[in-house]
Design goal:
single chain, 599 residues, alpha+beta, Nucleotidyltransferase, domain 5, 4 domains, three-stranded antiparallel beta sheet, 20 helices, 45% helix
């Protein structure tokens, strides 16, 4: 028998030792990469220390604690000693910790744990609905899947059980479905709370609201679901029913709220409803609504103007022809960014200002698109012409016209360039002849308008650069949809009931709020803006049970749930975020007195 005295400490390493290890790791990495002078090294060291101090202050602001405490970690009272059998020490119950721990930190940083507990107070249920809501959202953030995989596989393989105190056998699909039902009625309260909390954390301004729409499709018939309708599919799934989503975000891409519409509703029918919903929830402040082209109709613009709302909206490409003279005029163009110029034009009624913009990169892109489509159309017409020329029987004119129509439809960006005539020709066996030509005036207009686009606004006290830079912030709303569809897997929707569909989208919205909170956090800590990289890196951190059989009686064991020490890259990441992983997820068990052990 091999015996040894194992000093099982309730601390397993003090907080000071942990921070020292992190600083040493950071110093070692910096020294390995350093190639500057000693003086520069001292300056950079001071900058790094200031950066770490700022990160801790930011972490304190976000987590709301002056000194982050480890979860379930009790303060050290005294050091206990016991002899254990080293030859029988083993590990069991390995769980993934890092990503769900960070998700739980974000959930608590936004005080969603407190809000959900208030909105869904504990009753006779075995598991509080507030805890189940956290499970749904953290799962959607870290490893998106439907409720069934969460219940069968995901939850039991993570350490979320230790973080929120819900046993794995208490998380099953039916309970998760019922949690969706309990969460949905509180959508408005959640949006209002998040607006306040995000504003507190990141000093957000809500003077400019970016509005955009998208759709997500269903798998299944979704019979009886009024939202599930067929319409223009942005997911390129016209075979599936869909639901429309209108999202409003701030200039930083932080979500303010959203609305759902039937999948067959046109974009221009939603503006008035969404604007009124946002103003009802958050007040009638003087905001600027920023929308892309195709989002608002003439009636929408008249309604916005009538009620004194300010807007900045992209216009359809066809509107450019009204401003052909101004486009050709070389005067008054101002550079707003390298390769981008813009000029202000007063609208015909004097109530609006139009912003003409032209971009070198956009011109090159549109020229390449036009050239590609022109080549396809001409190749298709040449092929059809040869078929007619070599035909030995009469060809049906209607079929040929439909073939030409499909060719132009597939290459619509260059279809207007061509005049195509399919007329009778009794002298040929085919009975028809094909004639086509390119229109020079189309080429002339393309040379002038390629790379150009037009904005319209009723804002009178901004210069051209302010207007342009505000409009391009719409990319934040577009990025929000990409994150929902890609990183958070909002599509496809497997739920069939309307209320469950709404709850599913609410969970995705809350996960997106956590995503953007992490993005803002790590961006301000100098870690870029890729939350998935952070989640994946910390997701490799695991926890496990260290089981120590006692030397006096191996039937009695000490079980300590320990967290693996982060590697150098993970330690640096945590240090920059101002966070510290817990070293244990439960207090160490009391050690029995060997004299009291019955043999």
């Amino acid at each position: 028998m091999v015996e040894a005295d194992a000093f099982v400490s309730a601390a397993l390493g003090s907080a000071q030792e942990w921070q020292a290890a992190q600083l040493l790791a950071a110093g070692a990495l910096g020294a390995a990469r350093w190639q500057g002078s000693p003086g520069d090294r001292r300056t950079t060291g001071r900058t790094r220390r200031r950066g770490r101090a700022n990160a801790r202050l930011l972490a304190q602001q976000i987590t709301g604690s002056a000194q982050q405490r480890e979860l379930f970690e009790a303060a050290v009272v005294d050091v206990q000693r016991v002899a254990v059998r080293l030859d029988r020490v083993y590990l069991e119950r390995a769980r993934r910790l890092g990503a769900v721990w960070l998700g739980w930190e974000l959930w608590r940083a936004l005080k969603l744990d407190e809000l959900c507990a208030e909105l869904m107070p504990a009753g006779r249920e075995a598991v509080p609905w507030a805890q189940m809501a956290a499970v749904l959202v953290i799962a959607r953030l870290t490893e998106p899947s439907s409720e069934l995989p969460i219940a069968e596989d995901w939850y039991r393989t993570t350490a979320l059980e230790d973080l929120i105190g819900v046993p794995a056998d208490s998380v099953y699909d039916n309970r998760l479905y019922r949690a969706l039902d309990r969460l949905l009625p509180h959508k408005t309260a959640l949006e209002q709370h998040l607006r306040r909390r995000l504003g507190e954390l990141f000093a957000l301004e809500y003077d400019r609201l970016l509005y955009d729409v998208t759709s997500t499709y269903f798998e299944g018939l979704a019979a009886g679901n009024a939202l599930a309708q067929r319409g223009h599919s942005r997911d390129h799934r016209p075979d599936c029913k869909q639901v429309g989503i209108a999202l409003v975000v701030t200039r930083e891409g932080m979500p303010l709220g959203y609305a759902l519409f039937a999948g067959n509703r046109h974009d221009v029918t939603r503006v008035e409803e969404v604007v009124e919903q946002m103003e009802k929830r958050f007040g009638l402040a003087q905001r600027i609504w920023v929308m892309d082209r195709g989002m608002a109709s003439a009636e929408d613009l008249a309604w916005l103007q009538k009620n004194g709302r300010r807007y900045l909206i992209g216009t359809p490409k066809s509107e450019l022809r009204r401003w052909a003279h101004e486009i050709a005029n070389t005067n008054d163009w101002q550079s707003v960014r390298e390769g981008v110029e813009a000029k202000l034009c007063v609208g015909p009624d004097g109530q609006e200002t139009f912003v003409l913009c032209r971009s070198v990169e956009r011109r090159e892109k549109e020229q390449a698109i036009h050239a590609r489509f022109q080549k396809r159309i001409e190749q298709g017409l040449d092929k059809l012409g040869k078929r007619i020329e070599h035909a030995r029987v009469v060809l049906e004119r209607g079929k040929l016209e439909r073939q030409i129509g499909r060719l132009l439809e597939r290459n619509a960006r260059a279809a207007g360039r061509y005049l195509i005539e399919l007329g009778p020709d009794p002298a040929r066996p085919a009975g028809v002849r094909l004639k086509w030509s390119a229109q020079p005036q189309w080429d002339d207009w393309a040379r002038h308008s390629e790379g150009c686009y037009l904005l319209r606004t009723n804002i009178r006290d901004w210069n051209v650069e302010q207007l342009w830079r505000t409009y391009v912030q719409l990319s934040e709303a577009e990025a929000a949809f990409r994150i929902h569809k890609g990183e958070l897997a909002i599509r496809p929707v497997w739920h069939q009931r309307e209320d469950r569909v709404k709850a599913h989208i609410l969970v995705c919205f809350l996960a997106y709020v956590l995503w953007k909170t992490l993005e803002q956090w790590q961006s301000r800590a100098g870690l870029g803006n890729s939350p998935r990289t952070t989640l994946d890196e910390l997701g490799r951190v695991q926890c496990t049970d260290v089981v120590l059989p006692l030397a006096e009686d191996p039937r009695h064991k000490l079980r300590i749930r320990c967290v693996a020490r982060p590697d150098q890259a993970q330690a640096l990441l945590l240090d920059r975020l101002g966070l510290r992983l817990p070293e244990r997820l439960r207090p160490p068990p009391s050690i029995p007195d060997p004299s009291n052990i019955k043999m």
